[in-house]
Amino acid sequence: MKKFMSFALALCMAVSLAACGGATSSSAAASTAGSTAAGASGTASSTAAIKVGGIGPVTGGAAVYGIAVKNGMELAVADINAEGGIQFEIKFADDEHDAEKSVNAYNSLKDWGMQLLMGTVTSTPCVAVQAEAKADNMYLLTPSASSTSVISDAQGNFYGNSFQVCFTDPNQGVASADYIADNKIASKVGIIYDSSDVYSSGIYEKFVAEAKTKGLEVVAAEAFTADSKTDFSVQVQKMQSAGAELVFLPIYYTEASLILNTADQIGYKPMFFGCDGLDGLLGVDNFDTTLAEGVMLLTPFAADATDDATKDFVAKYEAAYGETPIQFAADAYDAMYIIKAACEKAGVTADMDMSAICDALKVAMTEISVDGLTGEGMTWSATGEVNKAPKAVKIVDGAYAAM
Predict the structure, then answer these.
(1) Residue 394, CA distances (Å) to 176, 247, 324, 399 in order
(2) Average pLDDT, stretch 15-37?
(3) Distance linking the first and last C-alpha atoms of the chain
(4) Distant-in-sequence, close-in-space partners of 95: CB < 8 Å, separation ≥ 6
(5) Closest among 32, 35, 28, 3 to 14, alpha carbons compared
(6) Other residues' Cβ atoms within 10 Å of the Cβ of residue 399
(7) Sign of the CA dihedral running 8, 12, 15, 17
(8) Phi and psi dihedrals of 248, rounded to 5?
(9) What 3-state class would DSSP assign to 345?
(10) How far apart are CA 299 and CA 43, in angstroms?
(11) Does residue 181 or residue 16 have the better pLDDT?
(12) Do 146 and 167 contact (CB within 8 A), yes or no?
């Protein structure tokens, strides 16, 4: 990894251009029309930069995800550009976890000259943007949108232009049921899920099917919708009445914090288990993080891992942003290196248009293997789905610990 002081200077210059809540432009160092900085090295590069757009929520209820992705993207580009080979210029746009705003952000980035997209961050906006990207033949690599609708239509036909760094919802549901059963964590399971959200309902459906084959008893399953997620007393009381030893939460961290509060208020103390949507729980405003003690979740990244790459990334992230990175930051960091590997494999250059780049990367993605923070030997088939092994973490003493 590169020296931190050089990176910090470059990052400060990039962040000074940022405006929270709107489209923000960021590269490893300041750039002007017709020239591109060489990233953390601070040395001018004669290599033209490929323009990569990013979309996600940096304001609103899902901002923890988007900010982490934006930060991880910036760190990766600083490192990549400092290496002196292929160069990237990035611009990140806020969508507030809203599908319509995400499409508007996509169109704005196209006007900027985006040649490929690293995004979007969350599933519902990504599905909306994918429809535009498919029509434009724009390459799309999402770091964290896990719905199968991002990579295929309702009939299961794969789009071909879109790829994922994270696990798909079905894989998360199956892997969660397998982990709980194989490790004998609980036998009586309750589920609280968002029936109005493709991420949550997709994981729920596969979890229930896999639980049956693994001998787990689903004693209660309670849904909520996006317009009724402020009071979870009914759902939590039904979990308690049914005798659920473990409550599975295939939902996002904001709703999970409310459920944990409700359970505490009625004296219900089951185990709680979730997926990558729970990553961010410790950062919820005004949330008593002691209530999250013992919460388990499947995620491909654990910040306390002892390998050199993770330790270096965590140290750099904490120095730059003053907090420990969550999975979404690692996903985005990996995403930029995946894009780099695919571009190098395909011989992509900055003078190619977005459609030509997309056609080249469709092939290259099936031919590369990437060792990253979120998986070793990551590969992709033409379906767009990533192949890598899941990991589990547990919240211990207010931090994520590998299980």
Answers:
(1) 13, 15, 15, 8
(2) 32
(3) 27
(4) 55, 56, 57, 66, 101, 102, 104, 105, 120, 121, 125
(5) 28
(6) 14
(7) negative
(8) -90, 130
(9) helix
(10) 37
(11) 181
(12) yes
- Per-residue b or e along 15-52, where b marks 16 or more CB atoms closer than 10 Å to that residue's CB: eeeeeeeebbbbbbbbbeeeebbbbbbbeebeeebbbb
Domains and CATH numbers, the chain: 4-167+306-387 (3.40.50.2300), 170-299 (3.40.50.2300)
> Of the candidates 286, 280, 215, 214, which has an alpha carbon nearest to the alpha carbon of residue 249?
280
- Beta-carbon count within 10 A of 188 CB: 15
pLDDT for the residue numbered 281? 93
**Pairing mode, strands 271-274 and 296-298:** parallel
Q: Which of 25, 18, 11 is nearest to 113 (CA)?
A: 25
249 HSE (CA, 13 A, CB side): 30
Scan for tokens 């996002």, then name that residue: 252
Residue with structure tokens 């002691």? 290
Q: What is the pLDDT of residue 63?
A: 94
d(CA 298, CA 329) in angstroms, rounded, equals 16
H-only helix segments in 266-377: 308-321, 327-346, 354-364
- Please state, rounded to an integer, the average pLDDT across all residues of the chain: 88
Can you say whether the dihedral through the CA atoms of 16, 21, 26, 32 is positive or negative?
Answer: negative
Q: How is residue 191 written in tokens? A: 């589920």
- For the chain, how many residues are written? 403
